[in-house]
Amino acid sequence: MFAAFSYVCKPCMGSGDGKFLIHRIRRTTARAEMAIAVPKRNNESSHPKLSIRGTDKIVLEIARRQSQSNGLATHDVCRKPDFHPMFLEEAYDQCKNICEEYAKTFYLGTLLMTEERRKAIWAIYVWCRRTDELVDGPNAGYMNSSVLDRWDERLEDIFEGRPYDMLDAALTDTLYKFPLDIKPFKDMIEGMRMDTRKNRYANFEELYQYCYYVAGTVGLMSVPIMGIAPESSLSTQSIYNAALYLGIGNQLTNILRDVGEDALRGRVYLPQDELAKYGLSEKDIFSRKVTDGWREFMKEQITRARVYFNQAEKGASQLDKASRWPVWSSLMLYRMILDAIEKNDYDNLTKRAYVGRTKKLVTLPVAYTRALQHPLWFKLNTKYV
């Protein structure tokens, strides 16, 4: 439920060469990813076009399987690989180091979790980041469909207890401790495929589909790790929906913050029909000129993102007490990015909205206070819009 991890292009974490590497993180290129993968099974993507209603069905199915599992993890179905304890300790340490380096604020929040939960979150973070790096990292020039096909196959092997390297092994071990569903992981890979073939979105329905694949999925991955408070009054499906909404809200915020930067790469992650409603086109974005029409358009986009954050609050307050702080931190800090866009007079074409270190430090204890509130308090005292 910690959503998109604030992905940015960073030096690529290597994926290994099929060996368990004990003493260091091996750095590889996307070409190496192809070399280490199992023989290609020629399974082309079969994902149908996904609508907002389609994600509702996905959440319902995942929540149903989660409820049926009664908290039982993968090890109740198949045999756990025999990892040496020292090997696993170093695997999780490497995941910790990567999370601490690239997601400092989020990492701080994970330290309040139980040891098993924070290790699991680190493992998921690293897998998501490595997946994202295939498309947006420094080796993205080597990217093609076969790389993602083989990454998909590699994911299946992780879920079947056959990791390729140390970082994969951390996720494999996590699968035997928590009832994770493979569906969000596979859907995130589909989101990477979308990024390689699509950089225009006709309407919000199409943009929502993209946001689900690359960020909403992270929320769905996270709920089994975060845990649901025993005193929660919401259904499992409602909490999964809230996790999805936080991912969507975070990704919409990323998009609004990065409009100018994406335009420099020829990408426009904005609904084309809504641009036209305000008399705008891609030319206005590429000209980098803020007009009254652009400000009105941005107001509508920011309002939409805030609606998703408001909906996410419902689930953030219902998670296990030890897991709420990083979620509330993410929710509050991303809202502040939207505030920063407004303070920049909606100029996200030439300026980058950001939350300064001081504001972050001030926000963290406020988020911690919210995280301590009893779930019933939110049900009785909070209005959702």
Automatic annotation (TrEMBL):
Which key words tag this protein in UniProt?
Answer: Carotenoid biosynthesis, Isoprene biosynthesis, Transferase
Q: Which reaction does it catalyse?
A: 2 (2E,6E,10E)-geranylgeranyl diphosphate = 15-cis-phytoene + 2 diphosphate
EC number(s): the record gives: 2.5.1.32
Q: Which PROSITE patterns would you find in this protein's record?
A: SQUALEN_PHYTOEN_SYN_1 (PS01044), SQUALEN_PHYTOEN_SYN_2 (PS01045)
> So, what pathway does this thing act in?
Carotenoid biosynthesis; phytoene biosynthesis; all-trans-phytoene from geranylgeranyl diphosphate: step 1/1
What molecular function terms (GO) are annotated for this protein?
A: 15-cis-phytoene synthase activity; geranylgeranyl diphosphate synthase activity; squalene synthase [NAD(P)H] activity
> InterPro entries this protein is in?
Isoprenoid_synthase_dom_sf, Squ/phyt_synthse, Squalene/phytoene_synthase_CS, Trans_IPPS_bact-type, Trans_IPPS_HH
Quote a single Gene Ontology cellular component term.
Answer: plastid
What are its GO biological-process terms? carotenoid biosynthetic process
Which is one Pfam family of this protein?
Answer: SQS_PSY
Q: Which PANTHER family does the record cross-reference, listed alphabetically? A: BIFUNCTIONAL LYCOPENE CYCLASE/PHYTOENE SYNTHASE
Regarding protein family, the annotation reads: Belongs to the phytoene/squalene synthase family.
Protein name, please? 15-cis-phytoene synthase
Q: Tell me which species this is from.
A: Olea europaea subsp. europaea
The organism's taxonomy opens as: Eukaryota, Viridiplantae, Streptophyta, Embryophyta, Tracheophyta
